[in-house]
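Issue: ligand-bound run for adenosine-5'-triphosphate - logging full I/O for the record.

Environment: standard queue, default settings, no custom constraints.

Inputs:
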Amino acid sequence: MTGPDVTGPDVTGADVTGADVTGADVTGADVTGAEPLLRVRDLRIAGQDTELVRGLSFEVDRGETLAVVGESGAGKSLTARAVLGLTPPGLRVSGSVRMDGQEFRGAPERLYRRIRGRLVAFVPQDALSVLSPVHTVGDQLALAARSVRRLSRRAAGERAVAALERAGIPDAARRARAYPHEFSGGMRQRVVIAMATVNDPALIVADEPTTALDPVTQDRILRMLVEPREGTRPAMLLVTHDLAVAAAHADRVLVMYAGRFVESGPVGPVLRRPRAPYTGGLVASLPGQLATGRRLPSIGGSPPRPGALPSGCAFAPRCPAAADECRVREPQPREAGDGRLVACHRLVDLPDPVTGLFKERV
Ligand SMILES: Nc1ncnc2c1ncn2[C@@H]1O[C@H](COP(=O)(O)OP(=O)(O)OP(=O)(O)O)[C@@H](O)[C@H]1O
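Outputs:
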């Protein structure tokens, strides 16, 4: 199925200028093996009279973790939800969301229900809330397995136990008959991982799944979510406000600001040598920078409300490098080498990295 918007002009829209991004396969209906697992093009999510996500394009390859970072309100969660077909009611979504070569944006809910679990699984912010208190853990896992596969009760039960075992729950066959409240906090988290992985999804969408947990537990859960199964590692779209989590778990990072694309690329280079001033500001305010004895720099001000965006680049009012052009036109993503895309008018004349711009700010 190929939605009309895949071939429409919106998909190759003006805000994606890099040759790789508008590559030949963007408009082609032919799906080749080279297509990434997830390809989002010109995603727009609008409320009553404000655009909340504004023309976002990105890709996630098989087995790769992409962290989506940015301050509160950047549109990270809405983007994740749009990928899952779970955008809150009342919001309008346009653009293209292709998974495994198939267009899903605008697909009927019954199609999305089928792919959620089988192709893509969701681990929400309040991950523990996905567990029902009135059913045994084994029944819940078996139900999740049967919702996407034709399985006998027995086979689904076996799949449930195998998922619990893989998630590190000892004596899984017996524990499958217990209710969530009978598990300790740590074991309940493992049950959630079993739920997310019971159908071997190719992509896991995780929205700040571990924010409330201590760093060691956080680290373990994120690793377990993408543990290879039968030699294949699931891909992950990881929404986080924590750059340290992104650095530890992601292969690539996508930085968002006020619903827009700011910068993307391999996580090490982007965080070590940010090129967009906004990324530079985020990196400069990492607590780790304190260890060097510098004052903690920060980006002055706060992000604009969706209904009160400035003209031009939304970051310009907070940007120490903003020029006249920045207050007039929104920058489009441009190739910046090393698999990097950067949306900044001043890309070519700013220091590389841009972190220094923020050193003297408090
Ligand atoms: N259902 C909704 N109706 C109207 N506006 C919404 C709705 N959901 C989110 N928004 C607005 O959309 C913008 C982006 O929200 P989103 O939750 O995606 O941000 P975020 O980057 O995930 O932030 P956080 O890190 O705080 O979760 C915010 O301004 C938010 O207030």
